[in-house]
Amino acid sequence: MKKIIAKRNLWPNQTAYIRNGIESSDFRRAQKALQNLCKLSRQGLFVSKLDRAALELVILGVLTRASSDEPLRRWALNALAVVGRSESSLENVLEAIKKFQDEPQVVSAAIAAAYQLSKRANSLITQLDLLDPKLVMLSAMQAGAQPISTQPPLTVDIENDGEVLRKLSLVNIGLGKAPANLFDPRYSNGEIVRVLSRDGEPMVSQYAVWAISESDQLKVEDLGIQLNRIDDQPLNVQAYIHRMFGEKGAGHDLQHDILDMGLRSEHRKIKLETAIGIADHFHNGLDTIVQTAFIDEDDEDVSQQLLDHIVRHADQSTAYRKLALQQYEFAEKDEKLRLRMRAAAIEKEILKDFRQLDAEAQLGFLKTTTSEKNVTNNYSNTTNNTWNNSGPVQGNVAQGGNATNTGTINSQTVANSEEAIKWLKTAEAGVQDVPIPLENKQKLVEVLQAAQASPTKENIGIAHILLHKAKDLLIEAGNASDSVVKIAGLASLLAPFIS
How far is the CA of 345 from the CAs of 11, 13, 254, 482, in angstroms? Predict the structure, then answer.
């Protein structure tokens, strides 16, 4: 059954993270970012018009810089087929066809991009006499195009056509762009994929496994390799089999065991591809093996892929949620990692918690998520100001001294009392080191404690007003702006509960 893909724009966090990766001087990271962009486009997620031109420029820079290697050029061209515009990218794409004749996969990616970018691609491509007609046709297929040709219907001979043509054929099968009997009218594509997955050429076998993972028409059972003999395969093929079981093995009896083996492998490539494969997959018990793998893993790329998975599925696992919040807190000074985690959390509940932690960090006050923290009083400044409360507050919390309350707030229990108590505790701890007079501080703490004991709108409203009064005292006394921002931040946490 063909998947129905709902198209929408990528969120700004996702686009920013991808761009950050493409701009990296680390070729491996840049290539992963380009691959991620292409994968997201296959899932119906596209760069918004506002971000498209800037991202296109970055990708063109990768394509044209002299230091880029063959895989990076190839994936830059694949990405231009997704975000490129004819007026700004086509010339560079055509130049790549002429310049990299000794890199057939780069040429193929450029041909596919040209067909994606321009309706004139056919006439422009046919002018280049040196190109293999089969290479042109297979490349055009990737863009959903059919070049005008006098050639007979395209078939690829698995015995005599070269490795590049076999790999391009498998790409088209994986993308769902190939005709039903691309290799031989007597055999379905699935039957040939089964044969090629155990082909003696490791890269052809890898492409065959990838095609199974991507194709709507193929399933795990189309793999031509016995699952009890995975370890006999070349390392790259092993890695892609483990990845395939993450992406497409749902419901298979051996899925959990194969993923466990992949994450515990001694080979980095197998661990990395397994981690990529489970990015969008979760089943009961997976969190146990992933947590263990994440804690034990020393390789940064593998760890970050596992963390992406943990964040994406934090809503489904309490253990994942706790670990994700812990890692986000630890990354307080690592904005690149936080950006990656926010990108992984798009449309997930945990994104709200990440944003709250960001807000707290910006305000510079005590952060609490999964645990309470003690605060040491480092301030010695005091003022002699007194409370002068005149506002919409009338409550059952007794206040001594010079404070007076007038007005009304509804006495009504808040909808999310546990959340309210959490932030009231945060506010109580946060005011301990704020340089306001001790008498005023004690009264404020009493009000916050009373609101925790009875989290009504009335009591929280009183606490909210007194926090703002504390801010006013600080301003009048000319105290540090950091303390003013801190108190304002604490007050803002309570505002949603009295609105």
Answer: 11, 9, 29, 30
